[in-house]
Amino acid sequence: MTTGNKIRSGALWSFMGSTGSQIISFIFGIVLARMLAPEVFGMLLTIQVFTGIAGFIAGAGMAQALVRAKDTSRADYDIVFTLQMMIGGLICAIFFFSGPIIADWYDTPVYSDLIRVSALSFLFRPFNNVPASILHREMRFKDMVWVRFLGQIASSLSCIALAYYGFGVWALILGGMVAPLITIPLFSMQAKWRPALSLNIARAKDIARYGMMVSVTDIIVYARSRVSALMLSRSLGPAAVGLYNKGESLADMPNNFITGSVYQVLFRTLAAEQDNLDRCRYLFFRSITLVAVYGTPFYIGLLWLSEPLIRGVYGEKWVEAAGPLLILIFAWPFWLLDMLSGAVLAAFAWLHREVVSQTATLIVTCITILIGLDFGIKGVAWALVFSAAFSAIFMHTLAIRCLKAHWLDFVRALAPAAVLNSTL
Predict the structure, then answer these.
(1) Is residue 176 pLDDT above 80, yes or no?
(2) Residue 131's closest CA among 144, 122, 121?
(3) What are the helix (H) ranges across 125-200?
(4) Distance between CA atoms of residues 216 and 212, nearest Å
């Protein structure tokens, strides 16, 4: 298969997988939202602030380092597996001892047990990450899609069953741990990979060097996305977190399944074509055009239907989530520009510059949220729109410098979407 065909096939399957995942999450999310109260989701999101950051540390960006590398060997995968197992075990131990401290800080005793049980997932992740990296590197997105689909279905059904029997927040925690039981053996069979240990320190340093920069960047990006939950939980309580997150997740859904799908293929292709700047510029701006054309109608639809959608789908108790949803729609062009520019920086190993951008954006996000808290969850939503604009401008400036392009190229890339969607 030619490179062009691989790109088209990979983009198609990545899009189908992302779209399918979002649809499944949406459908099962409706069921769970009607079974559980907003504060239950707020408790889960509060725990995920900590486990999410630890997840990036556990992965240490090494999977992405394997995908980006021009050449890899079986020994490289063994080294990554070994390092991730060691880091995962350390994270489990840290959360076991720090669980009561986190519970005391939030004055919610159940957080101690929730975070300890959630931490067990770090022992499973290396068995998933390494074979998935092999499939990603080989652009076998079709195989990745159906394995993750089965895992998501099993996990979602488990959450609903546990919620039905009254497990509350534990339904979300325990149900989420079902997916690895499905995906680990299937990923391993598809990638023809078996776990093995290696202590090749010299090679580990080479992989970890790039991976560390990826990990630092991911942690900062994740902190940006979760700082709102952290601040809301402390100031307005878990119910406000649940309501805000429902609006935010709906606003981000089209971005995730369209821009996210293109990102995966664009990153791998740019990494392979990084010596051909003309080709990379074409792929980058063509991707912006594609995402803008197909994504904008979804956001125009959300602009029209935000409140009736929330009320009709999730019920009256969730209607306040329509406020942040309506506001966050305006972050759409900044999200797509930020994400695709990030693919350029990752492919060309400009992560040290991206760290500066993401750190500056995190600071801006914290300041604007502190200001927005006085206006409730709507104020926090406007803060996120402002920080998204700041980040997009910063990231795209770095991307066009990396590709030796111009801002005018970006304007041309958006023109088809502006023309086609102007009537809407």
Answers:
(1) yes
(2) 144
(3) 125-137, 141-164, 169-176, 179-191
(4) 6
**Length of the chain, please?**
424
pTM, full prediction: 0.64
> Residue 3 is which amino acid?
T
Average pLDDT over residues 197-214: 64
Using the structure block, give the residue that is written with the tokens 């912006």: 288
Whole-number Å distance between alpha carbons of 116 and 100: 9
With b for 16 or more beta-carbon neighbours within 10 A and e for fewer, the 324-340 pattern comes to bbbbbbbbbbbbbbbbb
Of the candidates 327, 243, 240, 179, the one whose C-alpha atom is nearest the C-alpha of residue 33 is: 243
Q: Model confidence over 216-248: pLDDT tens digits?
A: 667 777 777 777 776 776 677 677 777 888 888
Positive or negative torsion for Cα 134, 265, 176, 116: positive
Non-local CB neighbours of 62 within 8 Å, separated by 6+ positions: 80, 83, 84, 207, 208, 211
Cβ atoms within 10 Å, residue 154? 17
> What's the token pair of residue 73?
């060997």
With beta carbons less than 8 A apart as the criterion, state whether 127 and 63 touch.
no
Measured CA to CA, the distance from residue 268 to residue 79 in angstroms comes to 22
